[in-house]
Amino acid sequence: MRKTWAVLTLAALVALPLAAQTRDQAKAFVKQAVEFAKKNPKEKFLEEVTGAKGQFHFTKGQNSDLYIFVYDLEGKVLAHGVRRELVGINRWASKDPDGKPWIQDWTKLVKEKGSGWIEYKELNPAQNNKVMKKASFVELFSGMVIGAGIYE
Predict the structure, then answer these.
(1) Against a cut of 0.90, is the pTM above it?
(2) How far apart are the C-alpha atoms of 150 and 135, rounded to whole Å?
(3) pLDDT in tens, 10-48
(4) Hey, what domains does the chain have and what are their CATH numbers?
(5) Residue 100, class by beta-carbon neighbours within 10 Å (0-12 exposed, 13-18 middle, 19+ buried)?
(6) Cα(72)–Cα(129) distance, rounded to whole angstroms?
(7) pLDDT tens column, 100-138
(8) Which residues have C-beta within 8 Å of that of residue 132, sequence separation ≥ 6?
């Protein structure tokens, strides 16, 4: 019994820093995207997110499977690092499988605090679009909600 408990405790201690590191990576990736947006025209930034060769576009394995997404404050997709077909679509009314209006929630969050974390469920492109729990860090810059998330 003691050995089992010790193994479980060790596993938990190893897993916690990995989750924190991944959240740190997502937040740092958003900060990197915001800095790029500050230094470049809006069109160049959005192409850097959506374009297949852009530094903020999804590439499995690179940046721990992270990608940037960009929405306006009314829920319209301005750029998406993995799902180009969403660009131009208003997703304001979208809800996760539990009925959570996550786009509305993150918009409220950035309007009130400027940035922060939000949790919801979403398709994971690295796991064959399986619905999984996701935590996204979002930041408001120049009328854009810029974010990246991790699947848990």
Answers:
(1) no
(2) 5
(3) 333 333 333 445 899 999 999 999 999 999 999 999 999
(4) 2-151 (3.30.450.20)
(5) middle
(6) 24
(7) 999 999 999 999 999 999 999 988 877 888 899 999 999
(8) 121, 122, 123, 124, 151, 152
Cα dist from 77 to 15, 21, 71, 81, 87, whole Å: 33, 28, 4, 11, 5
DSSP the chain: -HHHHHHHHHHHHHHHHHHHHHHHHHHHHHHHHHHHHHHS-HHHHHHHHHSTTSTTS--TTGGGG---EEEETTSBEEEESS-GGGTT-B-TT---TT---HHHHHHHHHHHHSEEEEEEEEEEGGGTTEEEEEEEEEEEETTEEEEEEEE-
Q: Show the tokens assigned to 14.
A: 């190893």
CA-nearest of 123, 145, 146, 147 to 134 is 123
